[in-house]
Amino acid sequence: MSENPQQPQSPQPPDQPQQPGPPQPEQAPAYGSPQPGQPYPNQPAPGQPQPGPGYGPPHSPGAPYQPQPLTPSDERMWAIFAQLGPVLLSFIAPLVIWLLFRDRSRFVDQEAKESLNFQITLVFVHIAALIITLVTFGFGSIVYLAFIAALVFMILAAVENNKGAPYRYPVNIRLIK
Length: 177
Description:
Elements: H1 72-84, H2 86-89, H3 92-101, H4 106-135, H5 146-162
Helix pairs in contact: 1-3, 1-4, 1-5, 3-4, 4-5
């Protein structure tokens, strides 16, 4: 045998005793295989919870899309945004929330529709208040105090939604059912 460590040694038959020589380097694991004691990539470590349905690889082509339901805390959060978002964005906030989350949560669907219907009702009230103000040469502007009541109703709705309870506005034209 050669004493040169650069040259590989030929394997010896099992019936012959081993001859002393330079130590053999350990074989590295094949590419992509885990190191000893390490889990496979993209797999939970031993003893860790296994992913449930819908959290694994993407669904197969042709399978229908199933949106993941919202957690109770997310439901409350989006319902509150649907109630208070109109302070800045009018009817746009509840409309966007309703369109995005109506399939994922029955509670958010119900509350966003309720808020959207209330905002549509407020648009009608705003048009009526404008007409009354123009006809009475500004004296009818007292009608705009109704918008303070609307703000109070939106805050009450957000408080109830934060508790996880639905809220029905006392004055609401329900166009979207």
